[in-house]
User: What shape does this take?
Amino acid sequence: MKKINTITSLGLVIAMFAVLMGPFAQIAYAAAITSASDTLSSQKVSTLANHDIQFTSPTGVASGQTIIITFPADFSIAAALDFTDIDVLDDAVNVTLAAAPVTTTWGAVRTSATVITLTNGTTAVTAGSVIRIKIGTNATNQSTGVRQITNTTTNGSKVIAISGTFTDTGNITVNILTDDQVAVTATVDQSLTFSISDNTIGFGSLSASAACFAQGTAACSASEIEAHNLIVGTNAASGYTTTVQGATLTFGAFTITAIGGTNTASAVGTEQFGLRMTATGGIGTVTAPYAAAGFAYAGTASTASQVNSSTGASANTTYSARYLANITATTEAGAYTSTLTYVATANF
Assistant: This one.
C-alpha cells in the first residue's frame, strides 16, 4: 500500500480553505456608532431647529463612502437646505463641502424631506474618529447657514438613523416637547435713598471783615467746612434730580443778597449768601452753578434750583454741602433765618 505524505496533504487542505474563503475575506461587517448624540436648538413641536449631531465611527469613512442621516417621517428638512447650511467636522477639523464630492471636498445634499446624504471625497476618515455634523444656522464654516429642520408635529421620543456605505450604523433618540420654554418672571421694586445728615445748621455772628461758613453748631467757621451732607441713590433707569428751594437769609423786610445763578468767589465786605457741593460715590454729580470752587444760590421762596443729579441708576452718592455768608458794614442788624427745602426725585 502507498503511503500518503501527511505534510503534503495538510498543505492541500490549507490551500483549498484559503481558496474557498477568499471571496469572503474582504467583507467588512457593520459596526455600531458610539457616543452618539444630537443637540437641538429647540425641542418644541413644529419649530425650526438646528441639529448638532456627534458620534464616534469605529470603522471610519473611506474615500467615496456615504453617511446617511434619516429623520423620522414627521420631521421636515427645508427644501432649499444645502451644503451651505451644513458643517462636517472630522476630529474637530472642518472638512470642505460642496453639492457633490470632488477630490478632498465632501458632497452634502438634502436627499428628501427627511434625509441628508454626505459623501466623502478622497480623504479617508480613520477608524475611531469623532464625526460632528452641524445642520442649520449653527453651521458657520464656509458660510453661515440660513435654513433649518422643522421639528415633528407630535411630541415624544423620535429616532434618527445613521447609516450609509461607510458601514457603521446606529440610532440617536431625541425627545420633542409640546413646549420647551419656561416663562420666568421677577419684579425689582423701585428704590430711592435720600437723607440729610443735619437739619439744623448756622453761621453765628456775621462780620463785614471776614467770610463766614455755616456748620452744625450756631457758630461761624472762618474756613470753608461741610455743614451737612445729602445722600442720594436710586435704581431708576433715568436716575434722579435733587433741588433746593427757599429764600435767602431774611430778617423781616431785610435780606442778605443771594449770589444767584453764577458761580462766584467769596468777596468779603459784599452781601453774599451762597451754596456749593462736592460729590463722592455713585455716579451722581453736582449741577452747575454749584459744582465749581465758588458759590451760588439761585433758589427762591417759590422757585426750586437743581443742585445735583444722576443720569442713570446709581449707588448712593454723598453730597457735601457748604454754605457761605458775607455782609457789608451797613447790612441791617437782626436775626436772619432761612428755611431750605431739598427734594430728591427719582426718574423711573
User: Anything to note?
Assistant: The helical segments are 6-21. Residues 6-21 form the longest helix (16 residues).
